[in-house]
Design brief:
The chain is mainly α. The protein has one domain: Glycerol uptake facilitator protein (Up-down Bundle). It is built from ten helices and no strands. The protein has helices at 2-24, 26-48, 50-53, 59-67, 73-98, 107-110, 127-148, 158-177, 183-193, 195-220. Helix 4 (59-67) packs across helix 7, helix 4 packs parallel to helix 10 and helix 7 crosses helix 10 (195-220). The chain is globular.
Length: 234
Amino acid sequence: MKKYLAEFIGTFTLVLFGCGTAVVAGKIVGILGIAFAFGFALIAMAYGIGPISGCHLNPAVSLGVFTAGRMDGKDLVGYIVGQILGALAAAGVLTAIKSGILAGYSASGSGLGQNGWGEGYLGGYGLTSAIVFEFVATLLFLIVILGSTQEGAPTQMAGLAIGITLVVIHIFGINITGVSVNPARSLGPAVWVGGRALLQVWMFLVVPSLAGIVGGVLYRSGVLAAFPSGSGSK
């Protein structure tokens, strides 16, 4: 349970400070500020809870680690449940904070940093662009995560490398989908916002998850692993 609680806390932190920056300070800090908020939150949690759970904070990452042979099915379920609950709780806290605006606030009207695509959403990119971006970005993210944490890698620097990668992904992709690469991060705000966000969340659940599985297969097959025989290494 300690590992699952760590994933809850870590995902809560990522969503609260990442989406919170977009909602509360997005107009002030812009895309770069939002990107760094997500990346720095991940780096902080990597060193805060990494020794406990590995700091996945993301069902796509857990699916990739499971597929690569680095965790069992019981932990996979526990991690994903913890991550989803953490994201839902963070979106709820963010809603409570925003509701304190004296002029009034509506999550369904003003949003919670939810992901999306199409006309009227940020850059106005279509579904095809959204799918391609989310798949490729999540796959590359998993390659960095699995590569930097495999046997023989300088794992003390893994949290920094992973966080910086998340920053770059956000700088590139915020105008396309708001950047998910994380089903829990997408589901939390979508449940509280409802409407279009909830109708579109399916893509952010399916595509990053598939990319995570593909990344895990690449490592388990030895295509990208430094030591193919050590697929079970930490």
